[in-house]
Design a protein that fits this description.
- The chain has a two-stranded antiparallel sheet with strand order 1-2.
- It is mostly helical.
- The chain is elongated, with a radius of gyration of 18 Å.
C-alpha cells in the first residue's frame, strides 16, 4: 500500500501541530506539580523507542545526516528551552516556574521546524524527513532534560545536607 506524499505531509503537519499544542498544555499543567527525577528523565527515555523507526528501510538516512540533525537539536534548538526553564522552591518542593517565554519559545521552535520541514522535504522523502526531525528533537530534548536534571540536583543539594 503506497500513500501519497501529499497525504503524508498533511498528516505529518497536523500531527506536529497537535503534538506541539499538547506539549504546551502538558507543560502548563505540570508546572502545578513538583518536579521529580522521573518527570525529568522519562520524556527522553520514552522517545528512545522512536529509534525503532530505523528498522524500516524507507526511513533510513546516511549517518552524517543523522549526526548533523542530532547536533542541530543539541546545540541550537535546546538553547532556548534551557534559557526559558527556571525552577523555584516552594515549601521544600521544586517546581518549574510558569513562563510565557517558554510558550513563545515552543511556538517559535515549532515555526522554525515547520519552515525547515518544507525546505528539507524538497530534497528527501517524507519518511526520511521524519527521521531527521526525530533526531533533531531527540538531541534538543536530551540536552534540555540533562540541563534540568543537573539544575534539579543542584537545588536539592542546596536545600538539604542529605544527598538525594
Amino acid at each position: 500500500m503506497q500513500l501519497s506524499p501529499t497525504y503524508l505531509q498533511i498528516a505529518a503537519t497536523a500531527g506536529t501541530l497537535i503534538m506541539a499544542l499538547l506539549t504546551i498544555f502538558i507543560r502548563l499543567k505540570a508546572s502545578k506539580k513538583p518536579i521529580t527525577i522521573k518527570k525529568i528523565i522519562m520524556p527522553p527515555v520514552g522517545m528512545t523507542t522512536g529509534f525503532f523507526m530505523f528498522i524500516v528501510p524507507a526511513v533510513r538516512i546516511p549517518w552524517l545526516w543523522g549526526i548533523a540533525a542530532f547536533a542541530v537539536g543539541w546545540l541550537l534548538f535546546s538553547y532556548p528551552l534551557i534559557r526559558s526553564t527556571k525552577f523555584e522552591v516552594t515549601e521544600g518542593q521544586v517546581f518549574a516556574q510558569r513562563s510565557r517565554s517558554f510558550i513563545v519559545v515552543l511556538l517559535g521552535l515549532l515555526a522554525v521546524r515547520m519552515l525547515l520541514h518544507e525546505f528539507i522535504e524538497q530534497y528527501v522523502s517524507v519518511p526520511q524527513t521524519g527521521a531527521l526531525f526525530f533526531l533533531l528533537a531527540y538531541g534538543m530534548i536530551l540536552r534540555w532534560r540533562l540541563f534540568m536534571w543537573k539544575h534539579y540536583q543542584t537545588i536539592l543539594k542546596t536545600q538539604s545536607p542529605v544527598n538525594h
